[in-house]
């Protein structure tokens, strides 16, 4: 039976870089954020978002994600309400995707909120990607063209590195491409010892 390896890490830790390294080795990778963005365009999800947040987050029936983000990232209760709309749809979609990869020894399930959403319970093993806090802030400011204050606000909505690492089977410190590769090789060796891969 296919094993699910959860891949998580705080904002700016470089989860996607690690996910891409696994994908480059031919391992199927499910990126929840990308899939959630696609699912947020479905009629059902748009209707639920309109019911929950009103017309103010829409412009001519098109969801304005920036407006929605401003509302939810400053209000944990509203963020939870949005997650309650999107997460069940992501879970359903992942189940379908997993059935298409059932002959694989394992897949990677990448999620920034693996622990916060409770999805970690469905994983056989968990990898947490970490990086020094200032490096993470710098990466997000550069990537999202945002401010330090906004990055720190988003970090407050996520578990910290220590909490995630304590519940993870593996930790990869993303300070260089070499460090990532060393981490991945260790994980693959572990999977060989466990006879999950040959």
Task: Throw out a few tags for this protein.
198 residues; alpha/beta; Rossmann fold; 2 domains; five-stranded parallel beta sheet; two-stranded antiparallel ribbon; 9 helices; 7 strands; globular
Quick summary:
This protein is α/β, with parallel strands linked by helices. The protein has two domains: 1-28 and 106-193, 3-Layer(aba) Sandwich (Rossmann fold); 35-100, no CATH class. The protein is built from nine helices and seven strands.
Describe the secondary-structure layout.
Layout: E1 3-9, H1 15-24, E2 29-31, H2 32-39, H3 43-53, E3 58-59, E4 62-63, H4 65-73, H5 76-99, E5 106-110, E6 125-130, H6 133-144, H7 148-156, H8 161-166, E7 170-173, H9 177-193
Parallel strand pairs: 1-5, 1-6, 2-5, 6-7
Antiparallel strand pairs: 3-4
